[in-house]
Amino acid sequence: MSAGKFRIGLVQMSCGPDSNENFAKAQRRIREAAARQADIVCLQELFRSQYFCREEDHRMFALAEPIPGPSTDALGALARELRIVIVASLFERRAAGLYHNTAAILAPDGHIAGLYRKMHIPDDPLYYEKFYFTPGDLGFPNFDTPFGRVGVLVCWDQWYPEGARLSALSGANVLFYPTAIGWHPSEKEQYGAAQRDAWQTIQRAHAIANGLYVAAVNRVGYEGPPETGIEFWGSSFVADPFGQIVARASEKEEEILVVECDPRRVEETRQHWPFLRDRRIDAYAPILNRWLK
After folding, report:
1. Residue 15 designated active-site
2. Is residue 293 part of a domain?
3. Given 25, 42, 45, 129, the catalytic residue
4. pLDDT tens for each residue of 230-272
5. Looking at residue 258, which CATH number applies to its domain?
6. In total, how many domains does the chain have?
7. 1 in a domain, yes or no?
8. Closest by CA position to 244, among listed 218, 265, 220, 263
């Protein structure tokens, strides 16, 4: 690759009931992505387990772990071996009774380059995350890596333009969204196509509005009882700085996407579509209000 370019890898996979098996699979997939020359590899949201937020169950807190902890130690060693960056979405136990949905960024030398704690926490049928997670308190940081400056948001964050904008204003060239999203069995036939289209469209819009790459990585497979589970719709994708889909995974299969990102494409797009230049920062103070009468 020419100077400045780097490759991102997205690991789309299914998760079973054994967290150790899921972790082993994720590590194998990271190796596969690195073998395809991925410099930064991003895993899906809460990849170590099935999506436990389908129900409110105190037993699920046993899945949480400290950061630094076993997962970041193992992934840090893997990042150091492969000389890559790994973005890993984890159930963080910060203290007794204090838990976060956290993305850890492991640097090529194995250390934790930073954390992002999910800011927007949903509370919907089968997505009872407020029961488990405290909203993040680290803001919307970016992370400098040897390959590029990146932002990381998590799942429900993807519906909010404010987070994407703030990440872009801090200089990110690519914005990762580790995700766990799918269909309710009772809704898929009537609403399924529109729901997935909205999910893709809002994230493509972040790429367009901010002139950066957006990479969304989702899980696949059905989890839960037949009538009350979730069919995760996969469809992981990368959009370029003008929102064009440059790679997309299937709805049902485990896949690894590897895509080249070119910071010059960010520069070129923002020169021709100067949305950041033309922002009226003098007029946006009302957005800090919950509602305007």
Report:
1. no
2. no
3. 45
4. 999 999 999 999 999 999 999 999 999 999 999 999 999 999 9
5. 3.60.110.10
6. 1
7. no
8. 265
